[in-house]
Design a protein that fits this description.
Growth Hormone, Chain: A; about 400 residues; mainly alpha
């Protein structure tokens, strides 16, 4: 199934260059976190509670989850290129709507439409699997997400500066400009990589039972869901803790968020460098252990009353490393269990992963009050990180009794 045509930069008849893949994946990450430092200011502007404005994160993630169920099969049926072009076009128009919003209902409505950027999240993985085999896919996804992590690294920092200088709308203006640039890259550089399109859209959904019966698919999906769940919990709770507990400004908060993204980039580098040698399953276990360690450090620091920004963000460096090791390998496994359903597998697993992330983000926001402090957030992060370890070991247990990845036998 792999596409062995060599990518040529800005040639839309060949597979995409790695820079294009980074941009496609990165715009989704940027959309998720560039305005995190502005959430308190947005709550004040619209005169609503923090829990309501936090829906711009949690409800958005929920819509992203639902769209991924559709985007994967659409791309398996019609191709990756047209689905990406349509998704990014909707995203750009919805971003303009967010900029012009004058009430919370309008803002949240256009924010939900921004979820069309999920096409980039889903299809960047499927495109890699179209191009290379499973173990190499883990390395390539690792390098793609390492480059992609530069965007969320600078996103909150840039968003904080923009918010303090020009107001919350400026973050959405930056998103719109970035979306237009990515749309151009897709048009100019991304040749179609799906060379085995399905006969009909309905056929893709009828193939879901074959995917659902694959136990390794669920093992990889649960690993990805729990691992990213720790990060999404942090996204939901960190702005509140930064503002209410630590008294940070939007600019300061955005700068500290870069620590997490830098850790993620380091973990992605480890995935790119070592996944082919160590194997994707072992890398998932090691990544989940590192992430658990990071969450435990923050829990201990706050438990002992060490209330400092680095007590919150410093240990998240290890959570970032852990996710950077776990997620590229879990995603490579997800799209390799049934290679002919790579888009559908990426979409279904993405829906589950992002959906659980949305729930955990909302839960973190709901649990935190000035009275509780930060402890509920760290307890939640430790719990889901431990579950990621268990899910990784489940994959290893199933793999000992299964066909190699990419085969259509027992899995």
């Amino acid at each position: 199934m792999e596409n062995h045509v060599k990518p040529v930069w800005l040639d839309k008849t060949t597979p995409p260059h790695v820079v294009t893949l980074v941009a496609i994946a990165g715009i989704g990450a940027l959309s998720m976190n560039i305005f995190l430092p502005a959430l308190p200011a947005m709550a004040s502007f619209f005169d609503v509670d923090y829990a309501l404005i936090q829906l711009a994160i949690s409800a958005y993630l929920g819509v992203v989850a639902l769209l991924q169920i559709i985007i994967g099969p659409l791309s398996d049926r019609f191709g990756r290129r047209p689905v990406l072009l349509g998704g990014l076009g909707i995203f750009v128009l919805a971003t303009l709507g967010c900029v012009l919003a004058t009430d919370i209902e309008t803002l949240l409505g256009f924010r939900m439409l921004q979820a069309a950027v999920a096409s980039g999240i889903v299809l960047s993985r499927a495109i890699v699997r179209d191009m290379v085999p499973p173990e190499k896919a883990a390395s390539m996804i690792g390098y793609v997400t390492m480059g992609m992590s530069l965007m969320p690294m600078i996103g909150p920092a840039l968003g904080g500066v923009l918010n303090d200088a020009f107001g919350w709308q400026s973050s959405f203006i930056m998103l719109g400009v970035s979306g237009l640039l990515v749309l151009f890259l897709i048009y100019a550089d991304l040749g179609e990589t799906n060379q085995h399109k399905s006969a009909s859209f309905g056929a893709q959904f009828r193939a879901y039972p074959d995917l659902i019966r694959a136990r390794r698919f669920w093992g990889y999906t649960l690993t990805a869901g729990f691992a990213s769940g720790a990060f999404f919990s942090f996204l939901g709770g960190a702005p509140f803790i930064s503002k209410e507990v630590l008294g940070l400004s939007a600019t300061e908060m955005g700068g500290y968020f870069g620590i997490v993204a830098f850790g993620y980039m380091v973990g992605n580098f480890f995935s790119g460098r070592y996944s082919q040698r160590a194997g994707i399953n072992l890398m998932m276990v090691m990544g989940s252990v590192v992430a658990t360690f990071g969450a435990l450090i923050s829990l201990a620091l706050f438990e002992f009353g060490i209330l400092h920004p680095l007590s919150l963000f410093g240990p998240m460096f290890f959570v970032g490393i852990g996710n950077g090791m776990t997620l590229p390998n879990a995603n490579a496994g997800i799209v390799s269990v049934r290679p002919h359903l790579a888009g559908s597998a990426s979409g279904l697993s993405g829906a589950i992963t992002i959906g659980s992330g949305a729930a955990l983000s909302a839960l973190a926001g709901a649990l935190l009050t000035p009275e509780t402090g930060a402890m509920p957030l760290f307890a939640l992060m430790v719990a889901v990180s431990l579950l990621a370890i268990l899910a990784s070991f489940y994959v290893i247990w199933v793999a000992k009794r299964a066909e190699p990845l990419g085969k259509d036998g027992f899995s």
